[in-house]
Amino acid sequence: MVLSLVAKKPSYGYEIIKDIQEASSGLYVPSPGVIYPTLTLLEEQGFLESEIVERNRKSFKITAEGAEHLQLNQETEATIFRKLAKARDMQHGGNLAEDIEMAVHRFKALLRHKMVLKQLNETQTRQIAQIINDAVQQIEQVNTLLTDHDVE
After folding, report:
1. Is the pTM of this model over 0.70?
2. Distance separating the N- and C-terminal Cα atoms of the chain
3. What is the rounded CA–CA span in Å between residue 139 and residue 101?
4. Which residues form the Transcription regulator PadR N-terminal domain (predicted)?
């Protein structure tokens, strides 16, 4: 998938993380500890090449060997994107319990993406904590309403 994304446009590691997050509708957000070793491996295999650009960041682009490898593995690429499309469809058209599960998965993925959390300042951190606490309180209220309704 990384090779496929870079084939579409030269990218930085962080852009690839965001592209995968978007492709999976937030269900999976790879960590830098997954993406950067993968990029290094693909570069060592001759499938990608990098160049240092703005602020000493590496931008990766596909090589002729990488394009050939991608061509030879079109079915695998298609399968990955088909599964992602199915996950998106389930997320947007699934049953209500699945909607809650998907929301929880997206939330967990966001929290696991430490790069985002490390960039927060104190105000942003407090705002996010408040949002989470408000959400918990609202869920408790809904649950109380449901429980009270069941008793009646």
Report:
1. no
2. 53
3. 14
4. 2-71
Q: How far is it, in rounded angstroms, from Cα 14 to Cα 56?
A: 14
* Residue that is written with structure tokens 């430490």 in the block: 114
Rounded distance, CA 81 to CA 75, Å?
10
Rounded-to-integer distance, Cα 71 and Cα 68, Å: 5
Distance CA 4, CA 84 (A): 14
Indicate the CATH number of 1-92 among 3.40.1280.10, 1.10.8.10, 1.10.10.10, 1.10.1740.10. Answer: 1.10.10.10
- Residues 99-131: pLDDT tens digits? 677 677 777 777 766 556 777 888 988 898 899
Residue whose C-alpha is closest to residue 3's, from 93, 71, 101: 71
Measured CA to CA, the distance from residue 134 to residue 120 in angstroms comes to 19
